Amino acid sequence: MKPxxxxxxxxxxxxxxxxxxxxxxxxxxxxxxxxxxxxxxxVVRGRDAYRxxxxxxxxxxxxxxxxxxxxxxxxxxQADSRAKAEIWSQSARFKHEQATxxxxxxxxxxxxxxxxxxxxxxxxxxxxxxxKSCHDAFRGPAK
Length: 143
Ligand code: HEC
Description:
Layout: H1 3-14, H2 22-44, H3 52-65, H4 86-89, H5 91-114, H6 117-138
Helix pairs in contact: 2-3, 3-5, 5-6
The structure holds heme C (HEC).
């Protein structure tokens, strides 16, 4: 790269010109959650072998990542996203959905560490229910 181009990039990058918007950041974080959650789902549904240590690591990853998207819902970040206005107008309800979700992810993680497939099935279903419940209330149609 020519030095002048390199300098230009350095300047623009430092100013955050190429940084993600909060909406782009949270969607990436949700997609990360989806990846862990789906690969755990194939095991829960019996389509993939249950390897307790691998599964426990995935549950720990899900737990570590579960809260991340919710740090990226600043007021005024609805544009060009599926976020509904209710996220900000009914923020207590939105926070309650988050708290229930995080609690259920903890329960799933505990079941995975205990290597208890019966408990894993139940708690996995409860987490899935939480994803759906929040999406039904707070995620609008795809744009
Ligand atoms: C407390 C609310 C809440 C919970 C819980 C939640 N989501 Fe979402 N999710 C949202 C909202 C709101 C959006 C839209 C974000 C945007 O477009 O800015 C979203 C977007 C997404 C996206 C981005 C792509 C798309 O379809 O818009 C994926 C993937 C996703 N969620 C997966 C999940 C999965 C999997 C779970 C459960 C493991 C989950 N979410 C739990 C609220 C939630």
